[in-house]
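help with this record:
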Amino acid sequence: MVNKTKPFLNIGPGEFIKEELELRGWSQQDLASILGLSLQTVHKLIHNKQPITLEVARRLSKAFGQSPQYWLNLDNNYRLRLEEETAEEQNTGIRAQLFKYMPLREMCKKGWLLCDLTDTTRLVQEVKAFWEIDELDFSFIDRELLPNFRRSRAYQQFDAYYALTWFKMAQKCARLYSVSAYNRQKLIRLTEQLHRFTVQERGIQEFLERLEQTGVKFFLLSHLPKTYADGAAFFMEGNPVVVYTKRYDRIDNFWFTIAHELAHVILHFKNRKSIFIDRLDQIESEEEKEADELASRWLKTKSILNYFEQYKKYISRFRVQQCSTELEIHPGIIVGVLQHHGYLSHKNLNKFKGKVSPLIPSKYFAEDRMQKIRSAV
């Protein structure tokens, strides 16, 4: 592959004409008289404002001694480089605009976009396909709102554009999954038994299969930087959709997130346009508090706290396991509750809070599923 070295400065033929004039002590008026051209035309030639024609090249060769081709080459090379620079400037502007609205590097890394960031033409095609738009007009992003996306005061790096980008990908992934017709009553009955699934050997797989039967779509979609999302819930084409980001790959975070998002589905989806993208360590709005209360009831938060009220000074592994057996709830969830409510240091008993991703069946990893579909096409 030949490397094209870009010149440090694009020098036009006008600079060479000026050098020739200086060598001879001629003025622009002198050259105009010699070439039989107007002073205005000579001025434009010297400032590269006017291309050198074959006739002008012949006259310059007679005046200065070089061949006509010499002057034509100087002018052609200058104007070609000028066009290249103009195109690159345009590409730079396009890339800057795209980076404002979405984390392109991260999206390429995740396989959401299939292109090289330096290939602006392909990048534009991929971005248009991603957003399902015909033109690079992102004014619609500024008009769209994420009604229930909470912006934490503690995290000033939150980026609403990135959040909307993540949500768009979640919508695209939701189309990859098919489930039964949504049945709210079946979902309510399932969630009332949620805690029992947390202690079963194949509890996550069993719960997710039962969740599909209630008509709720579930999948895992990794989060984007500056969004801080643990999970999301929204309605799409007649079915609720619950998404887990694996921002914290822990058993307690998984169950808390699932419970919280399902609480939104049951409590707050009268308006099927609602969108909830949640960060569970920042519960602020009334709807979030309501969802948190219902999720806490399913996960027996009050019972856990009551159980350990008398053991606050010393919470042992044995006590956690005993509580798990009595309440039928995973010990990792118990530890998470105790840490969240200040009964236990965040440094203690974390072995109970193991990784959750190995326990989630592969079909729920949306990005892997999408890549397999692309590979098969």
Remarks:
- Confidence is low (pLDDT under 50) at residues 1-8, 145-157.
